[in-house]
């Protein structure tokens, strides 16, 4: 049983803990929050015994061996490196880091301290994503890819009223591409690897982050068009188009359904069952790496490529974070 601790007490932490406990491979032992009372309120429902509001005391604790980090993006590097240097395995929410250099530093620290660093990006570990991978070879030569994730943020009305929610605040390394756009970019890189070219545009809000944007990734024989937005909704599925057929994906982040549509319009549902809590699968994959105490090379390559392309996208669109090198 892996003794787990968490940094962060928000809804996504709750979801991850529930998914991790469902695997039967974790025991939640400790909670860190800047507020001791908040840490207690969050952890008591899981019968947690140890609570911290001091990061140094938390890092030096011997009551856990792995940490799930779900703090704001701008804290990921510092908190992860602090935990890794204390010989704790780390699963850090996506995006792993605010920039490419930081992601490289984090993996270097993990390797120097002989522990696992894992980016909590659930999509590649889903059963229906595996179905998607398996069926790409059966649709003929690839010609077009369109990944779409546009969801009007519940925080956007606050922003329009002149408030400064974390979602649209560059101090927290946020914005559309760092949040939901990440799923489109991550899925493309997991399926097709590092692109030969990247072209990005975005609508930059007054706060300095992107509210929505588009990315075109160039590959041999096809391009991948990625559309992301936190200021509008879309109900279009994503598609991978081959010369013989098209694969259609309902919700690229969670792969709720995968269908094959041939040139005559005949539809075949390829979907398999998935657990309601999709974070179960990433927690299980993290446990696999912790048990053998080895970082998966393919996962590391994907995470670093993602950080590299995300940084390129921000440079092209003019999104600057205070944490940038």
UniProtKB/TrEMBL annotation:
Molecular functions per Gene Ontology: nucleotide binding
InterPro entries listed in its UniProt record: Gfo/Idh/MocA-like_OxRdtase_N, GFO_IDH_MocA-like_dom, NAD(P)-bd_dom_sf
Domain Gfo/Idh/MocA-like oxidoreductase N-terminal: 2-120
Record keywords, A-Z: Signal
Superkingdom of the organism of origin: Bacteria
Record domain GFO/IDH/MocA-like oxidoreductase: where: 138-245
Protein name per Swiss-Prot or TrEMBL: NAD-dependent oxidoreductase
Species, as recorded: Paraglaciecola psychrophila 170
Lineage: Bacteria, Pseudomonadati, Pseudomonadota, Gammaproteobacteria, Alteromonadales
